[in-house]
Write a structure and sequence with these properties.
23 strands, 6-stranded parallel β-sheet, 37% helix, Rossmann fold, single chain, alpha/beta
Amino acid sequence: MTDNTVRLTMAQALVRYLCSQYTMVDGERVPLFAGLFGIFGHGNVTCLSEALEAVQDRLPTWRGQNEQSMALAAVGFAKARRRRQIMIAASSIGPGALNMVTAAGTAHANRLPLLLLAGDTFTNRLPDPVLQQVEHFGNPTTTVNDAFKAVSRYWDRITHPAQIISSMPQAIATMLDPADCGPAFIALPQDTQEIAFDYPQEFFEERVCTIPRPRPDRDSVTRAAEVLASAERPLIISGGGVRYSGAERAVQAFAQKRGIPVVETIAGKGGLTHYDPVHAGPIGIVGSTSANALAEEADVIVAIGTRLQDFTTGSWTAFSRDARFISINAARFDATKHRSVAVVGDALETVNELDATLGDWKAKPSRLERAQALFREWDALLDDHQKPTNAPVPTYAQVVNVVNRAAGEDDNLIAAAGGIPGEVAKGWRVKNPNTFDLEFGFSCMGYEIAAGWGNAMANHGKSTPIVMLGDGTYMMMNSDIYSTVLSGHKMIVIVCDNGGYAVINRLQEFKGTPGFNCLLKDCRIENPQAPLHVDFVRHAESIGAYARSCESLADLEAALEWAKGNDRTTVLSIVTDAYAWVPGDADWDVGVPEVSTRDTVREARKAQDEIRSKQRVGV
């Protein structure tokens, strides 16, 4: 070591570098990396954990129960912090690392920052093959960590301790770039972690990282303004990029000033409150009748911060073939989709520049008036489906309404997969902006409870995450209920018990196949005494949570009040109808057998061909 260097192991240097990175959140200087979720094994316990133990006060380590769920908790944290602060997930080698692939895919699809640190095999290969090492006979450099290449925005394997000097700044720049944002994966071979190196002191200087706001090309803004000014029936689609840019108010003000209705994607829902005068509902396959009617008749669509996923576009059946798109997106790849007028830039900056370029143009007053009338009809339809009835089993819609009314102004709703997404996308009336997290870019079962933990961390007890999920998802990944009990991060979990995977059973039957292997009653059962019901209350209580079973909507309402007053995570279970759903959906293109002996399948195929005949041709 000299005056200008410090001798550290690679693992120690990596941790020190991470601790020296800061960011600004709401005017406050905070660590860029708020903490680390970790499970230690032989690939990281002797070196990385040694380095982390020494900085617990600066980079707290939280122990997860499963590598996938702890990485999903980091994804939920990043979403709650709107990509301005990042959590780390660290695993050992082999199966521990591979457990994080699903979380990497979730972060990648949703354009969310996540730093993954996974142990790896020996670079010197002297002890090969080591425990948990897979061997590729023709390529000894390949390890299980190569699996992350398909689901990472940045991927590296550190084979020399000096490599982190160039690699880590690139990983951080990727995670903070609005255009490239996604997971960064760093493989840490066991022997490289232990090696000491003389690192330059400058590498560890504190740095305040910033998120760029790229401004759009002037010509593209001019072209977009010309196209929008020609519109008779314009529509704005507000996506997740609006929320991550902090452009919600700008989009709302632009829409109100120009008289353009706003519909929201799944990721964009929550940018506007439910009763905002320009808000016309969620669009697409789990959308509203109001938004989908406006989309069908629109001649110019301004898509802001959305990748135009099939659940937004109805597999490209939701719009007229003659409609023109203006796509505002920080990512060129997303902006240039489907013959759009591409305006590549930050949502906030671009909306402001487009507004300045438009001059006095406004849509005809009848456009917004029609949107408001359609939305009132949609709101009344929701009321009709959400009101209590004398039915013995409540519907999803009724449960969503009870939970929605009980939620505080700042409480965060979290959901992801199964039947819940469609029901909350349609029926959850957002009270305050950015209090809604529906992960549907990857439709990741298992995200919900883990993300609730990350959300609770991100909000520091200022609000309570309310996690809604089905019984099938609960069975898939529930261990972070225990994590929140250990860490003291409270959430409320609502389990809608409908006897299995009800929404995929709905699709299966709708496309002509009888119920098969989705609902528990339709599974192969060798034991006639096997229960077709799980006691979620006893399970939750066994891992330290409070829990209560609800027999009715009134029970649920009372239980929610009880849960809000509790000092720890509380699980509420209620049996829910597996066959009742709120209407409003757009078409969806899925594979249906071209030939079948079943009349029901042949009819479904005809209907699917009709759907495909309406699709726009584009790229």
